[in-house]
Write a structure and sequence with these properties.
Blueprint: H1 3-6, H2 9-14, H3 19-24, H4 34-53, H5 71-81, H6 90-95, E1 97-100, E2 110-115, E3 118-127, E4 130-133, E5 142-145, E6 151-156
Antiparallel strand pairs: 1-6, 2-3, 2-6, 3-4, 4-5
């Protein structure tokens, strides 16, 4: 049932249904941009689950899955499974995201490690200061605390 079906007809005809009135009668309103943010969060949440499911998969430079990954190969693979296309490298992925502040980061956002202006590593933010990533040769996909302040955050569009 749509919100208009729950709003008294005299309000719809007169065009006087305010947000408070809609809330009082159990209706809803569309907020511009909210659907886009919700969709981005949904893709991020799905990608986060895909990455977590790859726990223990070995790191291999240049690997994009499904059994071995490098850092950007893991993020590319996870977001592809979540319905979003990302470019191949961490730097290219950074350039394709909507950049966000640390205070606005959410689980499912990308975490980009940088030295100066150069992005050299990427993972998926898991919340509580942690990320899922494929760290380095000899390691495996795992959940780890973010170990530096030299990070930027990006939300996949």
């Amino acid at each position: 049932m749509s919100a208009l079906n729950r709003v008294p007809s005299f309000m719809v005809r007169a065009g006087t249904a305010s947000a408070l009135t809609l809330a009082a009668v159990g209706g809803s309103i569309a907020v511009p941009g909210a659907a886009t943010e919700a969709a981005a969060a949904s893709h991020g949440t799905k990608a986060l689950k895909v990455a977590a499911a790859k726990k223990g998969a070995p790191y291999r430079w240049g690997a994009t899955g499904p059994n071995r990954f490098d850092c950007s190969g893991l993020t590319q693979y996870a977001f592809k499974k979540a319905g979003k296309k990302l470019p191949r490298t961490a730097a290219q992925q950074y350039n394709k995201t909507r950049h966000i502040s640390a205070k606005n980061r959410k689980a499912g956002d990308l975490v980009f490690f940088h030295s100066g202006r150069n992005v050299y590593h990427v993972g998926i933010y898991a919340g509580k200061g942690k990320l899922w990533h494929a760290p380095k040769t000899g390691d495996v996909v795992r959940l780890q605390k973010i170990w530096t302040g030299s990070v930027w955050y990006g939300r996949v569009k």
